[in-house]
Specification:
The protein is mostly beta strands. The chain has a single domain, classed as YVTN repeat-like/Quinoprotein amine dehydrogenase (Methylamine Dehydrogenase, Chain H). It is 6% helix and 44% strand. The chain has two helices and 28 strands. The strands form seven sheets. A four-stranded antiparallel beta sheet has the order 1-28-27-26. It has a four-stranded antiparallel beta sheet with strand order 2-3-4-5, with no helix packed on it. A four-stranded antiparallel beta sheet has the order 6-7-8-9, with no helix packed on it. A hairpin with a 5-residue loop joins strand 22 and strand 23. The two termini are 22 Å apart. 45% of the residues are buried. It comes from Cyclopterus lumpus. Keywords: Nucleus, Phosphoprotein, Repeat, rRNA processing, WD repeat. Pfam families: WD40.
Length: 335
C-alpha cells in the first residue's frame, strides 16, 4: 500500500476511534492500576494494580464482563504479564523478592520465594522473553538477569553502566535493547550474552523507557524531558551513532510508557506525570494523531501502562483512578 493511501487510512482510523465501556468496569480497582494487558490468544484483558488484585475480563466493548479476580495478600501489584502462551500470569510487587505465578488453566496461585542465582533485594521490573519459558529481570546497578520459569533459577546475567530504565526485545528475540538512565542504549545478543552495540540516545539527558516494533523496523526511546526519539532498528543494531528518524515532542513530562501495535503502524506513548498525557503516533508518516484522547472530558488521567489487542481492534490503558479506558479502533476488523 503506498504511504499516501496508508496515511489517509490512518486518519480515518483516528476519526473512527470509538470510546467503549471501561475494560474493567465490572470490577474497577480500588487503587492505582499498574497493568493492562490483552491476552495473546483469547478475547480477554487483564488488569492489576496496587489494590493487591489481578482481574480478567471478557472484551466485547459493551459490557466487558469479569471472568475472574484473584487477591494477593499484602502484595500491591507493580507489574503483571501473561506468559508467551497465555496460560500463566506472572505478577511482581514493589518491595518483594517473591513473585507469583497464576496458572489460569488450573486456577492455581503459586508464590515463588527463592530464585537460585539471584542476588537482588527485590523483583520488580521484568519482561517475558519472546521464545517463552524465561523472564528477563531488571536488577539494580545495571544488571539484567535471565530466569527460566521451569527451574526458577538465573542462568546468566548482563550488566550495563548506570541503571536500566527499560528493555525491549527484537522481533525474533535474538537481541535485547536496554535503555539506561544515563541515556545510553545497549544492544545485547541473547544467545551469547555479549553486548554487540551501544549508542547514545540523541539529546537525552535521562532515559525513561524503550519500545521495539514487532516488525523489526523501529526502536523508540523515551526520556525524562518527554521527547521520544524514533530510530531505524537496523541502524541501532549496526551504527555507533544512529540518527533519529523523528523526535516526537508532544509529551511535556517524562515519557514513561510506550508500546507499538501488533502491525507496527502505531506507537502509543504516555507520561504518568500528567493527566491526559497519551499520544498515538502514525509510523509511516511519523505524525501524531491530533484528536486523541477523543473525549472532551477527562477519562485518561495519569497513565502507567498501554496495550493493543492482538489484531489492534482494541486499545486500552491503566490509569491512577483504578480504571482501564477502552477504545475500539474501527480501522482494524479483528480483535
Amino acid at each position: 500500500m503506498p504511504p499516501a493511501i496508508a496515511f489517509v487510512d490512518m486518519l480515518c482510523l483516528s476519526s473512527q476511534m470509538k470510546k467503549c465501556l471501561h475494560a474493567n468496569s465490572s470490577r474497577p480497582s480500588e487503587d492505582r492500576l499498574t497493568t493492562v494487558q490483552f491476552h495473546p490468544i483469547a478475547q480477554v484483558v487483564m488488569t492489576a494494580g496496587l489494590d493487591q488484585s489481578v482481574s480478567l475480563f471478557q472484551v466485547d466493548g459493551k459490557t466487558n464482563p469479569k471472568i475472574q479476580s484473584i487477591h494477593l495478600e499484602r502484595f500491591p501489584v507493580h507489574r503483571a504479564q501473561f506468559s508467551r502462551d497465555g496460560d500463566t500470569v506472572i505478577a511482581t510487587s514493589l518491595k518483594n523478592k517473591m513473585f507469583y505465578l497464576y496458572d489460569m488453566m488450573e486456577g492455581r496461585v503459586t508464590p515463588v520465594h527463592t530464585v537460585r542465582g539471584l542476588n537482588e533485594a527485590r523483583v520488580k521490573e521484568f519482561s517475558v522473553c519472546p521464545e517463552g519459558g524465561a523472564l528477563l529481570l531488571t536488577g539494580t546497578n545495571g544488571y539484567l538477569h535471565l530466569l527460566t520459569l521451569q527451574t526458577k533459577e538465573v542462568i546468566r546475567s548482563m550488566k550495563i553502566n548506570g541503571d536500566v530504565v527499560g528493555v525491549a526485545f527484537s522481533h525474533d528475540g535474538s537481541k535485547v535493547f536496554a535503555n539506561s538512565e544515563d541515556g545510553e542504549v545497549y544492544v545485547w545478543d541473547m544467545r551469547s550474552s555479549r553486548c554487540v552495540n551501544r549508542f547514545t540516545d540523541e539529546g537525552c539527558v535521562k532515559g525513561t523507557s524503550i519500545a521495539a516494533s514487532p516488525n523489526g523496523q523501529y526502536l523508540a526511546c523515551g526520556s525524562q524531558s518527554g521527547v521520544v526519539n524514533v530510530y531505524s532498528q537496523e541502524a541501532c543494531l549496526n551504527s555507533a551513532n544512529p540518527k533519529p528518524l523523528k523526535a516526537v515532542m508532544n509529551l511535556l513530562t517524562s515519557a514513561t510508557s510506550m508500546t507499538f501495535n501488533p502491525s507496527s503502524e502505531i506507537l502509543a506513548i504516555a507520561s504518568r506525570d500528567e493527566d491526559e498525557a497519551v499520544r498515538l503516533v502514525h509510523m509511516s508518516s511519523l505524525t501524531v494523531f491530533s484528536n486523541f484522547p477523543v473525549s472532551k472530558r477527562k477519562i485518561v488521567y495519569r497513565t502507567s501502562c498501554l496495550d493493543f489487542s492482538p489484531h489492534s481492534g482494541f486499545f486500552s490503558l491503566a490509569n491512577n483512578k483504578g480504571h482501564a479506558p477502552l477504545f475500539r479502533l474501527l480501522h482494524y476488523k479483528d480483535f
